[in-house]
Every structure is written in structure tokens, then in C-alpha cells.
């Protein structure tokens, strides 16, 4: 592998290595990964002239936030271990997402919807780098959508907190403020995320190639595949193995470095 230059985007954190014309990207990646070895360094190889994107579409659970909301709701009724096991299998692609969601939601029957306020206040944390990612992309005139297989009672608040332009998710059904144990149909899963990316890109008058997508679960793979830059962030093993790009060590600011932004370009909120 031959490089023509190295440029720091953030000293000691992120750099661009410019490959000479004619370099085979696959060979370059193999050489660099051999050089990195087991060091905690992320590597993305891409064309420099198309890496700046106009639209960010992001998963919520274990991506923009550090938790799985349904697991935290289940903890309130003492069923977190059972629900978390189903969640992990669904996110690894071992079982279909839609029936797994129905099964987990059924276990929440009887919970007061007000418990969501307590979960958000006491259990939900934003993923490191998320505020900078959204603020910086918005400051550059780009669009941001939060699209989740979770629930609108969470996405609406997380989206507002971070500054997303819109959010899409599933609707937990309730009766007089009590969860019925059901979710509105049709369920927003893998295909719905693909549809959302395509619909929003069309609304914006841009190509899916102008999109950067980020997620961690099997139901994110479709949107990661059709986005110009599809990033698996601290993803489930099967997802990371299939994604175009993977970030195993860095935080959400890695999505800015991937696009060539320097640390000095970041908007810190």
C-alpha cells in the first residue's frame, strides 16, 4: 500500500490517510488492518470526493442512546432479563423483529404510560458524541431523522433533545393511560427503515447516496446497505460483519470524521 499524505482531523484521535491513485481499496484495507492489529483503532476506506452527506438517518436504541428502551420498561415489572434476551436475539437477527416486538410488548400490559417519564429521567443516557453529531450536521444545512423500531413516546423526546428534524417509531397502545400490551400495526421494522430513508431522500430531492445512516441491530442492515455511508456503531457481531463501515471503538463523532470534518468544525452544545 502506498499513501500520498496523512492529515490530522483531530490530533491523536482521527486522521485522513490519502491513498495514491490506482491503489486497490481492498488491498489497502487488508494492509492497514494488519498494521493496526489488535489496537483499538477504527478504519474506514472510502472515496474522498463523495463522503460529505446531506442527510443523517439514525437508529435510537443502543445507537443515539445507550439503552434499549423496552428493556428498561420491562425492568419496572421485573422482567428485564427475559425481555433483554429476546431483544438481543432480535437485534442479532436470530429471530424475526416483528413477532419478537409483539411478544415483548405483551409483557408490558398493565403498566401506566407515565412510567416512561421515570425511565427517561432515570435510566436513559445519550450516546457520547450524539449532540455534536446532530448539531454539526444541522449547522451545515443538513437534515436529520431518528427512525426506530422502538416507540414514539421515547423517540419524540430524544429527537427533541438532540435536535432531529423528525422521528418515526412504533406506537404503544394505551387505554386510559394504561398500556394494553399491544403495539399499533403495521410495525416499523427493517423494511420501514428502508422506506423511511428512501421517502425522506426523495422529499429532500437527494439520492440515497447522499445519506449517512447509523445503527447497531439486524433491523438496521437494510438502511445501512442503501445509504451512501452505512455505519454499524458498536454493533451486534453479525451486523458489524455485514456493514459497509463499522465503528467499534469511537463514539458518534466518528460519523463526522468519516465525512472529513475536523474537530474544530464541531458544534459543541
From TrEMBL:
One Gene Ontology MF term: magnesium ion binding
Cofactor (UniProt): Mg(2+)
Keywords: Amino-acid biosynthesis, Hydrolase, Magnesium, Metal-binding, Serine biosynthesis
SUPFAM superfamilies: HAD-like
Reactions performed catalytically: O-phospho-D-serine + H2O = D-serine + phosphate; O-phospho-L-serine + H2O = L-serine + phosphate
Keyword Amino-acid biosynthesis on entry: yes
One record GO biological process: L-serine biosynthetic process
GO cellular component: cytoplasm
InterPro entries per UniProt: HAD-like_SerB, HAD-like_sf, HAD_sf, PSP
Known pathway: Amino-acid biosynthesis; L-serine biosynthesis; L-serine from 3-phospho-D-glycerate: step 3/3
Keyword Magnesium assigned: yes
Entry superkingdom: Bacteria
Annotated catalytic residues: 59, 61
One Pfam short name: HAD
Enzyme class, broadest EC rank: hydrolase
EC number(s) reported in the record: 3.1.3.3
Family to which this protein belongs: Belongs to the HAD-like hydrolase superfamily. SerB family.
Protein name listed in UniProt: Phosphoserine phosphatase
Organism: Neorhizobium galegae bv. officinalis bv. officinalis str. HAMBI 1141
